[in-house]
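Check these lines:
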Amino acid sequence: MNFIIIFEYIGMFMFSFSGSVVAREEEFDFLGIAILSITTALGGGILRDIIINSNAPYALNDYMPYIAIALGMFTALKFKKLQDNLGIIILDAIGLSAFTVSAGINAVNAGYNCITVIFCCFLSAVGGGIIRDIMVNRKPYVFQKDIYAITSVEGAIFIFFLNNLVSETLLIFMSFMLVFGTRVICYIKRISLPVFRYK
């Protein structure tokens, strides 16, 4: 099993966890929790694959993603108290970084241009979360506060321009740490993008 597949599973686990947490907050039943968990974990990747690839999405051709999703659901339901603290942010940043890296590496290996690489990373990393928030009638979290979605764009650009300069293994870990570090540091320092408001 290569690093990309491992990163995909990490991302699925973490976003399944995230979807289950939101479902708990909204007091969904067990079916609702399962659907929101699956949607959060796989939604962005399925949309990406449908748009850029004529083949059936990977998530619909293999059972392994659902094992990672089930583990994420179980973990989220196991703990009685879950808050938006640094621990949760770190776990979510792992998922964000994992999906950004796996999508970016696959995109550059497929020969896509910079815009398409950015699109693949962005949709894979935050698409599921956006769908999740729409399903529970929330404004998408990634567009409201914190440095979040932009870190996926940052990772995509980094992967595209360093792809031919370093080994793939080194690129994977460098880009992962870049996205992860940016997300966590900006959260700790309370750095966010400016919000547009009419005066």
Summary: The longest helix spans residues 86-109. The chain has seven helices and no strands. The mean pLDDT is 86. The helical segments are 3-25, 30-52, 64-78, 86-109, 114-135, 149-162, 168-188.
